[in-house]
Amino acid sequence: LFTAYSKASDEVDAVDGDSAVAALEEQRRTVLLEIEDKAFSYFRLRAGIVAAEQALRLYRDKHRSSMMLRASAAFQVISRGAYRGLATHPDKDAEILIGIGADGSSKLAQEMSKGTRFQLYLVLRVAGYHEFAQSRTPVPFIADDIMETFDDFRAEEAFRLFADMAKVGQVIYLTHHQHLCDIARRVCPNARIHELAAPLVSDRRAA
User: Fold this and answer.
1) Of 27 and 154, the one with more pLDDT
2) Residue 42 pLDDT > 50, yes or no?
3) Residue ranges of the domains in the chain?
4) Helix, strand or coil for residue 148?
């Protein structure tokens, strides 16, 4: 459009005669109107994009803040006070999750012990499940022997988190550790424990 406008202006300057000049002047005005219309359309679209991006950012921040608060509180509980909670640290265009120790020190996930990392991942999943359940019908939460590195105290807190999750959905925990079943019975009296029969030797050989 700007090229067409420049061309029309050059043609106006180059011709003689009122009728020719009037025609080219009309052409130039038409091009100017097109430029103005396209510019307004661009700015309207751009404003819409900016507004949509801002709305998405606010939505994510709101839900991320809620999820982070829940995960942080759960991490403090499941770590039995070894950590005060969780926080994020900006890193270029992303954010890094860190654990805040009871003494105020901070640790990245990769600096934590294996058991603590498992606890961290669990509380994030628990917090995410609660967020999901607030807006839609939740699917069952299934975990398979993720407490192998937990001591009995942390296993108790994990089962309490599961009991809280069961208020908004369904939790299925698979384990072959009998002592975890005993802890679950004690901590979650409403839990249903299904003991699966071990396969016969002949069945295992056939498999």
Assistant:
1) 154
2) yes
3) 2-47, 137-207
4) coil
Contacts of 129 (CB under 8 A, 6+ apart): 138, 141, 165, 168, 169
- pTM value is 0.63
**Collapsing DSSP states into helix, strand and coil, what is residue 53?**
helix
CA of residue 52 relative to chain centroid, distance: 18
Other Cβ atoms within 10 Å of 188 Cβ, number: 19
Q: Which of 67, 70, 75 lies closest to 101, judged by CA?
A: 75
| Helix (H) or strand (E) segment spanning residue 86 | strand 83-91
In one-letter notation, the amino acid at residue 146 is I
**Contact 160/193 with Cβ under 8 angstroms?**
no
Q: Which amino acid is at 46?
A: R
pLDDT digits (tens, 9 = 90+) for 117-127: 999 999 999 99
> Among residues 75, 85, 77, 71, which one has the least CA distance to residue 153?
77
Specify the amino acid at residue 75. Answer: F
